[in-house]
Structures are given as structure tokens and as C-alpha cells.
């Protein structure tokens, strides 16, 4: 009986080992492609399909933050870290992308008909160019999750870029027009005053400043709404002047 029991045990063990080897072989063939499919699906949902819609009323910063309250947190964090006022950050995004997460410059036309290359690599809420975005990623030790289509990182990028403009070009944070000229032309272009030959850019920079001041006046009337909106926040530990 003992010998018979041992043979059954050995046979059962062999069957389990055989099944294990079969599944291990299948996993080696299908595991990585399946993992890639899962990651790809997650990335699509995370960075594209689930991207928030542009605000219904982009003319009023209070309405923007009422619709996307977490954007206030992102802008506030960027201001505290880099110095650019919340209203100026939102004015930049308004004119750069109209609050569209995946905004790109329109393609040029080959022979006036065929869609061709895009004029620049600008992408995302802040329309950050590839070289500037790469510099930002390196300077801030960013992870693979740091993308231009996420408002959190777009606003942080705007704040970081303006911080460098303030440090290297001595542009005050209270001067949205000059900050935007440096943002659009690059710090080197601003130093060379390249914008003086571009009246359209000067006009755009003035509109950015006007909107920044308008947003700032609006925000003063409603900012208290966004100080204690999370369940774990309570007055007075989440005031704007803390």
C-alpha cells in the first residue's frame, strides 16, 4: 500500500509539474504582449480618453476653477514653488491651447492640399516645445508620468519657465506681457529683442497681460471657495494667505 501511495504521489507531482511548465511556456509567449496591451490601454485611458474637457466658460477664472477645482490646486502649487501668479498661469494656457489637453499647431499643407508636417513640436496645455520640455524634465528629475497633457505638469512647466525668465532676464512676475514675450520667443530671443520685429506677437503678449489682470481681479472675488474644498481641509489651515 505504501508503494502504491508513493507512486500516486509521484504521478500527481509529475502532472502538476507538467501543467506548470505548460503555463510557464504560454506566459513566456503571451505574457509580455499581454502586459504591453494592458499598459497601452491604461495609458490611452489615462492620457487621452479621460482628459478633461475645456472649461465651458474660459472667460471667467472663477467658473474655470468651479468646473475643474483641482486646477486651482495645481496653479497654487506652481505659484508657491516658482512665483508666477495663478492668474498669469491660466492666461498663458488660455492663449497657448484654449485649455485643450492635446493641442498641437495645425499641420502645414504640401502644395496647398496634402496635410504635411507641423511647424513646431509644441504640444499640450502649455504648448511646450520638445527641447524646452526635455530641459524641464531633466531639471526637475521628472518621471515617465510627467506629460504635457496633464494640467498639473503644464502649469508647473509655465511656472518653471517664468522662474528662469525672472532669474536670467530680471523680468518681474508682475509683468505678464514681458514674461509671455520671453516664453514665446525664448529667453535668447527676448534678450535679442526679436519680438520688436513681430507686431502680432507684441499684440498677443498684450492680450495675455490684459487677461491675466482680468483673471486676477476675478479670482480675488472667489478664491476663498477653493481653499477648503477637499474633505480633509478645514479653516483656517487652508487659507490663501497661509
Describe this structure in words.
With 242 residues, this protein is mostly helical. The chain has 2 domains: 12-44; 61-225, Peptidase U40 (Lysozyme, Orthogonal Bundle), CATH 1.10.530. 62% of the residues lie in helices and 2% in strands. It is built from 8 helices and 2 strands, in the order H-H-H-H-E-E-H-H-H-H. The chain has a two-stranded antiparallel sheet with strand order 1-2. Helix 6 (151-169) packs across helix 7 (176-191). The protein is elongated, with a radius of gyration of 26 Å. The model has no long low-confidence stretch (mean pLDDT 84).
Give the total of domains.
2
| The level-1 CATH class of the largest domain | Mainly Alpha
What percentage of residues falls in helices of 4 or more residues? 55-70%
Instruction: Calculate the mean pLDDT score and round it.
Output: 84
Provide the β-strand percentage band.
Answer: under 5%
- Biggest β-sheet strands, sense, barrel: 2 strands, antiparallel
CATH superfamily of the largest domain: Peptidase U40
Radius of gyration: 26 Å
Order of helices and strands: HHHHEEHHHH
CATH topology of the largest domain: Lysozyme
Number of helices: 8
What would you call the shape? elongated
State the separation between the terminal residues, measured CA to CA: 81 Å
Low-pLDDT stretches = none
Widest beta sheet: strand line-up: 1-2
For the secondary structure, the number of strands is 2
The CATH architecture term of the largest domain is Orthogonal Bundle
Structural class computed from helices and strand pairing: mainly alpha
